[in-house]
Specification:
The chain contains no helices and 46 strands. The protein has 598 residues and is an all-beta fold. The N terminus is likely disordered.
Amino acid sequence: MHRVHLLLFPAVLIAGLVGSTQAMAEPTHLLRQPAISAEHVAFVYAGDVWLARRDGSEPRRLTSDEAEENNPYFSPDGSMVAFAGHYEGNADVYVISIEGGQPKRLTWHPGDDIPVGWSADGSAVAFASRRESDHGRSAQLYHVPVDGGAPVRQMDARFFRGQWDDSGQRLAYIDFGPAYNALYGGNAGWRGYRGGTTPSIRMLDPAAGDLFTIPGNRVNDIFPFWLNDDVYFVSDRHDKVLNLFRFDPATEEIERLTEQETWDIRWAAGHGDTVIFEAGGRLHTLNVADGQQVTLDIRINPNLPQLRAGWREVRGNIEQAGLSPNGKRALITARGEVFTVPVEDGSTRNLTGTDGVREYTALWSPAGDEVAWVVESRSGQSLVVTDQRGLGEPREFDLGPDFYRLQAWDDDNGRIVFTDNRLGLHYINLDTGRVREIARNTRQDGFDVALSPDGQWLAYTLRQPNNFRDLMVYHFGDNRSAQISDSMADVASPVFSRDGEFLYFAASTNTGPRQFSLDMTSQERPYRAGLYALVLRVDGDSPLKPRTGDEDPDDNGNYNGNGNDNNDEDVEVRIDFDGLFARKVALPVEKGNHGDLT
């Protein structure tokens, strides 16, 4: 097989205005992780910690390093802000004066140290760290002196997020993080998760040895903090939307304080009678005494390197790559643009060159004269088909609101096969623009697809309830699918032979250890698949039939010594379904992690 390494290609560059100067007509969004003191609010924007007056006026940047800074917390007197600085490749605890200046580093462990608040007297910063735990899913609570010194562990129990009350005698906390970890820097968007990884808020009095758990089984509770003698926290216990709640330890009553319906409250903190929280990318304050809620009007126009116009190398942002039919160019999608890159002759071409628009999942036509890709927009996705040089008049087809992946292109019949992010397999008729659904998976899984040489059949895999994929074939003329395999093996990577006589595929019976998101194939049972061929016609020969090496006559019984074997005739694929799966032939290839057959 001919291999082309992307590293041999010229660097793919894109020029243009990456961002424009932010207009001041609208309040700034994407403000995160707010904190509040008697006179100020702090928040994170574009990876820096910012400070503003309590009403949102006079915003200014406290930190400006290229590394990420987050998790800000005011000292009890409001004179300093503790935060996590990712300056040395991991998160450590730093403090900085509200007047600015150089941050002071307090922790030096190679693992992440995440500030969660302060000691009641303001002499130490409280932080969570896994430095002494023997497993990676939980941390413990530490204090590190602001004046310098070694961190001191506060208790042996697990700890994730929480704060002390004003006296420093009671701690409200959760002992592990919710599975919905997008709330605190992760990437699992499991909104409304109701599984076992749903911590409840605990109230601990270390001196008395008392521990009380706020009721709330199988709900996401997070960001507990004290105001006066009550515990405030964020929870999705009502309608799976994250709102602000108050718990009164004296009466053990829980009160809902906000009515967010569209945007989750993703962070909350408090001081005095005021709670500040983030929802919908903006910061809001709530007076817990009178219930008045205010959305802060924060407008910032920072000098950010991300907004500076310039050249960007997108080699590290490649999303998809494929070769042209004759291997002369590679088709690459990267950073929302579509490029063709020469293997030898010519120059790199940006076929899209759009600002603020994302193009993705490109495909080259089998003839090599056209290229297709999908354009993303707020109104829905659309398919664009245009000349390979990007100079012709493009054809555009509406696809719908989902996200798509182009899979196969049939030039002769004007069809493109594609999948969506809702488990669907479809094709579009490029003459009419009509989209028809072929199949829909029952589990989160992609489709392996292959077009027959005459374009009348599509072979694909379909996940079954036992988690094995079956081999299916779809006939475009009848708009019907037929199941070929018997659900006793996991089928992958079907491909038709060029003469239309065989359908090759890989199949495995030991795929179990890599199913259900628990991949154990690095252990003693690695994934292994054999290669097989289906003889499509009932009168067809096995691809392993012994050969005599004799001269063969043509269909009329004549011998053509000039070597004319009629290869120019059109291929017509015929599938005889009676006994089809019984006509499978195991190929003499050692079992292995086979896939992407061609």
